[in-house]
# Entry
Amino acid sequence: KALDVLTTLPELLTHHLTVRPDDVAYKVYDNASKSWKDLTFKNVYDQVHAWRHAFAARSELVRGDRVAMLLPNCPEAVFFDLSALSNTLVPVPLHAIDTPKSSAFILNDSGAKVLVTNKLLKWKQIREAAETPEIRLVVITDDKDCDDLEAPIPVMTKETFLKLGETSQLPKEAPKATDLAALVYTSGTTGRPKGVMLTHGNIVSNVKATLECVFPQVGDIFLSFLPLSHTFERTAGYYLALATGCTIAYNRSVLLLADDLKTIRPTVIISVPRVYERIFARVHDKLKKSRPAARYLFDWAVEIGWRDFCRRNHLPVEHTGRAWLDGLMRPLVRKVSSTLLDQFGGRLRIAISGGAALSSKVARTFCGLGLPIIQGYGMTEASPIIAGNNRTLNQPNTVGKPFNNVEVRLGEGDEIQIKGPSITRGYWNRPDATAVAVTEDGW
# Structure
């Protein structure tokens, strides 16, 4: 109910300040102390406020200007994003795995005036790959002593950037639901990358609609490891968690994901199938080294659990000669289930999968052993989620039902066509591509 009145993305943070300012919003690993540190919602707001002043100190930035980010998942990515949005600027997230040339293309295509990145080397590689005539300032978050304020394109550390903003005045205008909230560039696998224009209203409506499928609660802990440059993670792993008062912990690296799962013990994860498949493979590798009896009991537990899952979700129930023993053997399911859930830290309540189809074998194992993975379908142009299963109706061979605020129809050749408040207004500076993808009446 509290979310009903929210219309812009900065409000997803500020609406917590009167009710839970001291709750933990983020958990971040501090390399210096080798420990996890907490940031409260008030801490985050204070940092966003400082970044807003720093952006406001740049007289060349006006409403609607684009500012780019090339950062790993970290608090600075949030400070950058929410401060830019609060100042009516448009974030342009760059993909960490892109080549410098691809990053330069996006900077130039978007006309970004500022780039925030974590390493000076990344900026140097972009400059070597191509000229970036629109960039007016580069901010480096991690490196120290790299200020070069007299360069044709000034470079400054995060500390210098924030200090120069201490005396600036914040803009009086607030963002509107119709303002652009991001230019998210497609991968470019079918041609040049295109900047998908998403508004505050697009993304906020998708956050609210996602609550039809999953219900994060205050106190839930997300472990974030998908890149924030992708709309799936931005909406489901960042804005949804922020809106619902959850804690987001940032994975240190993909190589340390297994360790972080056991340390953070998340209750919610947003993932692609590959992560679930890796854990499935790890469990099966252990089984291969076990006695035949252990493998037999594991498979039997999955079979019993899968039957129970099918009954709960109105799926056809497959019966075998030993189905009559299900009631007697259910304690086996609970015992085997704990070995799987321990791989995720033992507290996982919601597991979402998107980006590709989850294999039926993996889905059957996870759902049968008490971790019903929720699959959905979407695309960047829809902010991004269009349809999804949920915890009370989960059919893993489908992507669930369309959201209530999304209309769906079939076009020529059974092309899926969609319409709704989360749909992009088109592609940045690409009217021809927009005309191909979006009809005049919004399909």
User: Anything to note?
Assistant: The CA atoms of residues 226 and 233 lie 6 Å apart. The two ends are 29 Å apart (CA to CA). The mean pLDDT is 95.
